[in-house]
């Protein structure tokens, strides 16, 4: 009888040693896979990283540019204001600076420049040009609502004597609401419009309310009292 040779049994690692071997294999596979991905997409990833860096740099640069531009606009506006508030003979020379800001400034300075330009035009006798600018601001939905109300009020004030009464009344009505910051000035214009139309009783009622309104500006109350006297009424009557 031929004996078969007895082969030694392979010695396998026991316990944690087996799991360690599998972990090493998995790590090598992952590393190999990562290397293949890096070789395939490395240039794309590098490009994306570069774009991200450039994007952040561009954003910061744009913010810096905007800050510088706002500073330049502020200086230009203040320089024009100094001229506009200076001697009468020089005030109209500020118009080109305001017109430039009205065209190229940011939203805030565009609105302020148009309002100041309109006031200068009105002072210089160009009522049509002033009215056009006030209408632009009033219709500008991007402008501050408070400044849009100023434009409507200025337009109405300069139309009190000769403008269409119905159009003037329509502009003044929302401004005269008690919750509007300009209500006292708007109500004063409503009283003047009533006087122009010969509605003296309505005018007296308006001026009496204004004269008694402790929240109204002192100038408005003083003018209301003077107009009441002119109309034969009294604030306390």
Instruction: Report the sheet with the most strands, covering strand number, pairing sense and barrel closure.
Output: none
How many strands appear in the DSSP assignment? 0
Question: Helix- and strand-based class?
Answer: mainly alpha
Please provide the ordered H/E string of secondary-structure elements.
HHHHHHHHHH
Total individual domains: 2
Low-confidence stretches: none
Straight-line N-to-C gap: 145 Å
Portion in helices: over 70%
What average pLDDT do the residues reach? 82
Count of separate DSSP helical elements:
10
Q: How much strand content do the residues show? A: under 5%
**Quaternary state, please?**
single chain
Shape: elongated
Q: What radius of gyration results from the CA coordinates?
A: 39 Å
Task: Give a written overview of the molecule.
- The chain is mainly alpha-helical.
- 75% of the residues lie in helices and 0% in strands.
- It has two domains: 53-143; 159-237.
- It has ten helices and no strands.
- The model has no long low-confidence stretch (mean pLDDT 82).
Keywords:
elongated; 237 residues; single chain; mainly alpha
Describe the protein's topology:
Blueprint lengths: L15 H69 L3 H4 L3 H10 L2 H17 L3 H13 L5 H13 L7 H11 L7 H14 L3 H13 L5 H14 L6
Short structural description:
The chain has helices at residues 16-84, 88-91, 95-104, 107-123, 127-139, 145-157, 165-175, 183-196, 200-212, 218-231. It is mostly helical.
